[in-house]
């Protein structure tokens, strides 16, 4: 197995906190060859591979955040404290120290990411860092094994009966859901709402939203509709879809898409790079700068309107890369139109496409497509003669290709083209 939770009960001695007393254990998390719980005990000056914590806290946190861990999507620009509290194991400590282990959905698997961490007022610090994608079934098995062990441990302990009963009922409820309830739980988690604690008004709004929104973009739309934005997001999507429906029909890009072979690279950004190169080669664009909204015979129409959330960047048409986007300056517009093209060309299901800041494979692929389509790595290599380039030169390259300086610098770094020399 690529992920393993290991624990052994320890005698904690008498304590007023009976839950901690009866579920205290040595606890280690192994992911691949890494030990996430590797710590340096600064006081004793020794390394060890486990922490000592009450596992009731961990089990309760896992049950409470069950749906969020499997379905709630993060943001590429950074996550909110609320999101972290639902996905980072460190928040399960309740006064005890646990690793900074973040668990988020990724391509049908679960991404585990952990980093070096020095908790305040603790004598230990976590010394390992890494990232690994694991199968949900593997991780879920470890979750279930720990939760069941905690409930078994508390069975017959009268001092813990109330808390154990509450945890047991919540755990049983998760397994007893029917298909419709499972679908609602998934939708609620995407919005950032606890499906077992959603007010009736919120639950009704989630159901109505799912009934109105195009299935092709429903998951992303739900993930963008947190913080009471369900009605606003639904209204904006409807208006944007109406605008796209009035767009002139043009089959030129449909013909391009029909002749393209979709990339098969494992990583979404690599697929985006490969697709952009294929399109540029097919259209004979060579390495010259382009504006996707002004390509001869293949211009991409765009309209702008302010979305209800800054995380929403645009909606792409069903049968062309025509798009409605958030207002931007000339450089930002060029990038969004290129993203719309990448989303359209790589689309695997019929319907609209949504552009956003979400940290999903689809969004990562469209961003990578836009970067490579607008400022190809091979073009940058030709323009950078040596193995170093100044910041001023990257600014000039950005101006030439009509993109941001940050985008050019990331291209240079990500493709290992040259070292950027600061002034």
Give the termini separation.
49 Å
Which class do the helix and strand fractions yield?
alpha+beta
Output the number of helix runs.
17
Question: Which parts are unreliable, with pLDDT below 50 for 5 consecutive residues or more?
Answer: none
Radius of gyration: 25 Å
Main beta-sheet strand count, sense and barrel state? 4 strands, antiparallel
Which geometry do the CA atoms define? globular
Instruction: Tell me roughly what share of residues is in helical segments.
Output: 40-55%
Average the pLDDT over all residues and give the rounded result: 93
Strand-residue proportion: 15-25%
Q: Find the count of extended strands (DSSP E, 2+ residues).
A: 16
């Amino acid at each position: 197995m690529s992920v393993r939770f290991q624990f052994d009960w320890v005698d904690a001695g008498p304590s007023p906190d009976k839950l901690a007393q009866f579920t205290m254990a040595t606890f280690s998390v192994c992911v691949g060859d890494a030990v996430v719980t590797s710590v340096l005990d600064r006081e004793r000056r020794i390394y060890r591979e486990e922490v000592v914590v009450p596992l009731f806290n961990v089990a309760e946190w896992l049950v409470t955040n069950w749906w969020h861990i499997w379905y709630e999507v993060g943001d590429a620009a950074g996550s909110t404290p609320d999101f972290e509290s639902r996905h980072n194991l460190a928040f399960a400590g309740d006064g005890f120290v646990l690793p900074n282990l973040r668990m988020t959905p990724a391509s049908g698997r679960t991404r585990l990411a952990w980093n070096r961490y020095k908790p305040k007022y603790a004598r230990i610090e976590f010394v390992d860092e890494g990232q690994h994608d694991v199968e949900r079934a593997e991780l879920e098995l470890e979750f279930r094994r720990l939760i069941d062990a905690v409930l078994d441990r508390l069975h017959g302990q009268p001092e813990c009966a109330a808390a154990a009963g509450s945890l047991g009922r919540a755990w049983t409820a998760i397994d007893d859901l029917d298909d419709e309830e499972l679908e609602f739980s998934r939708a609620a988690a995407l919005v950032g709402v606890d499906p077992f604690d959603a007010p009736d008004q919120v639950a009704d709004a989630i159901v109505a939203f799912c009934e109105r929104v195009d299935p092709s973009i429903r998951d992303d739309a739900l993930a963008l509709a947190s913080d009471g934005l369900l009605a606003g997001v639904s209204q904006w999507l409807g208006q944007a879809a109406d605008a796209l429906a009035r767009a002139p029909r043009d089959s030129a890009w449909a013909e391009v898409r029909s002749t393209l072979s979709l990339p098969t690279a494992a990583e979404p950004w690599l697929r985006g790079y490969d697709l952009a190169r294929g399109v540029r080669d097919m259209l004979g664009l060579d390495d010259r700068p382009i504006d996707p909204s002004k390509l001869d015979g293949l211009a991409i129409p765009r309209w702008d309107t302010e979305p209800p959330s800054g995380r929403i960047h645009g909606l792409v048409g069903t049968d062309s890369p025509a798009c409605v986007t958030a207002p931007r300056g000339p450089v930002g517009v060029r990038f969004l139109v290129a993203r719309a093209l990448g989303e359209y060309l790589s689309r695997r299901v019929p319907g609209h496409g949504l552009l956003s800041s979400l940290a999903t494979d689809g969004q990562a692929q469209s961003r990578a497509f836009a970067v490579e389509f607008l400022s190809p790595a091979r073009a940058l290599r030709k323009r950078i003669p040596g193995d170093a380039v100044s910041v001023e030169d990257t600014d000039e390259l950005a101006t030439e290709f009509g993109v941001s300086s940050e985008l050019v610098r990331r291209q240079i770094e990500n493709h290992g083209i040259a070292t950027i020399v600061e002034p």
